[in-house]
Amino acid sequence: MREVGNGSECIISAPGKAILHGEHAVVHGKVALAVSLNLRTYLKLKATNDGKVCINLPNIDTFLCWDASELKQFIQHSHGKQEDVKRLDAELVRRLRQFVGVADGSLDTSNMATLAFLYIYLCLFGTGELPSLTISVWSELPTGAGLGSSAAYSVCLAAALLCAGGAISSPLKEWDHTARWCQEDLELINSWAFQGEMIIHGNPSGVDNAVGTWGGMLRFLAGRIIPLSRVPLLRILLTNTKVPRSTKVLVARVKDKINKFPTILTSVLDSVDAISCTCEKTLVEMTCEPITGEHYNILEELIDINQHHLNVMGVGHPTLDTLCRVTLARGLHSKLTGAGGGGCGITLLRPETDMAVIQNTIQDLNACHFDCWETSIGGPGVQVHSPGSLKEDVLGILNHY
Predict the structure, then answer these.
(1) Which of 44, 70, 277, 390 has its CA 20 to 30 A from that of 180?
(2) What is the pTM of this model?
(3) What is the 3-state secondary structure of 53-93?
């Protein structure tokens, strides 16, 4: 196994994602804007010489270990070509499902994470000796909340294993705290991360892993994903209502409403498209000229208009109405992010927003039994870290396992 990062280990992180504007409209050929969340998933890969391949996932209480020799049975089924990432190897997936004991059943979070790891590991190392290593992953992102936690995990896996196998080099120099890969390496990371997402989700759009790879903001239209080169870092509150929802059901609900009221809903979708484009234009302006209060006025108005549109489309929820009402009472503007029907919402924070207002708002939302974090959007994508660049609590968790 080649050395990665500092010696025989590396630490990598990737961000979660939120949909800023364009939820559901993107399914109907309209623009959606996805942004990176500064809530990250961290992965530590450590090379060992004990003949074991281990994965630690403390967020979901999972620790699994195999003998590397035990995994050699799959080598003939793994294509082993690091550039051959167009299609999923269905036979390898089938055999791995049998191996982890979920050949016919549905996958829980632990099984999905395990399958994605084993698949990428075997594909990347399948033409040579299987290296012994331990991977530990810890995330600031809640799972199943529509915030791209699985994609951040897949991106970290892909980057770490590609680095370990020598397909890409670590960009971290001795004096660096963090570093990012070149465009060509990011393309390869994204391709393998998409393989992990296909194992976990079946038919993903590719938006989540692209956000995890490039960070910042991405424009998604008609299957094309375009990273925007410069976006401002915006402070937000991220709120999880903890109301479960089915994306498939909500997508079908919007489709039914469009079929029932085509003239009305077509206009709504066109308006949402215009909101996304206006937001993109405003954010680009904020990187090219001094940021003013008027920029934030526009962003707040777009948030309010879009939230009303999403309610018209039938993907609102009483808890999201509560989120909007509670934050507006403090002078803040909120909207759902993702599929809706519960799930999560984002609240824009102006630069001058007083810390007391933020803390009181968080307390108000916690009193509604919501989880709430102060974070930011528009930060960097996947990157490699020196141990000293990490927060002590994150480093402690990664070193503990």
Answers:
(1) 277
(2) 0.91
(3) EEEEEHHHCEEEEEEHHHHHHHHHHCCCCCCCCCCCCHHHH
